[in-house]
Amino acid sequence: MSFLPKEISEGLERARKLAERKNTKLKIHVDGKSYKVMSAWENGFALEPSILIRGRVALYDGERLISHCLIVASEEGDGERRFEYKRITEAVEEQPLDFYRAPDAPVALITQH
After folding, report:
1. Which of 20, 47, 57, 99 can bridge 30 by disulfide, Cβ–Cβ 3.0-4.6 Å?
2. CA–CA separation, 40 vs 107, rounded Å?
3. 113 to 75, 107, 110: CA distances (angstroms)
C-alpha cells in the first residue's frame, strides 16, 4: 500500500535503478572487451540490452578480478538483459600449494657468507 501517486512512485523507482547502475564498479571482460554491469544479484547480473554474450567471462570489481563465470542469457526487460551463472570459480590472490606449509615456517632463508 503506497500513499504516493503512481507517477511519483514510478519516478522514484526509475531514479533508484539509475543510481544503482551508476554506483556499481562491476565489469564483465570477454573476448578483449569490457562491459559495465548494470545490476548484480546472487545468481546473475544484468547488462545493456544490446549486449549479446555467453560462455566464459571474467567478473571484475574495478580492476580486481573476482571470479571466472560460465553464463547464459536468461531474459530481457526493464531496459536490461539478464544473465544467469551456470558456474562460478572464485579468483584467488595466490597460487594453490601442493604441499603443507607450516604456519610458523620462515618466509625466506638468509644465509651468512
Report:
1. 57
2. 39
3. 68, 20, 10
Sign of the dihedral through C-alpha 61, 63, 67, 73: positive
Kindly state the cell numbers that stand for 101: 606449509
Q: Tell me how far apart the alpha carbons of residues 77 and 96 are, in angstroms, rounded to a whole number.
A: 41
Q: In this structure, what C-alpha cell is assigned to residue 72?
A: 547464459
Residue 41 bridge partners (DSSP): 44
Cα 30 to chain centroid, rounded: 13
Residue 100 has which C-alpha cell? 603443507
Element (H, E) at 18: helix 6-23
pTM confidence score: 0.63
Strand ranges of the sheet holding 55-61, from the earlier edge strand across to the other edge: 33-36, 26-30, 55-61, 64-77, 80-90, 44-47, 39-41
**pLDDT tens digits along 55-81:** 999 999 888 899 999 999 888 888 889
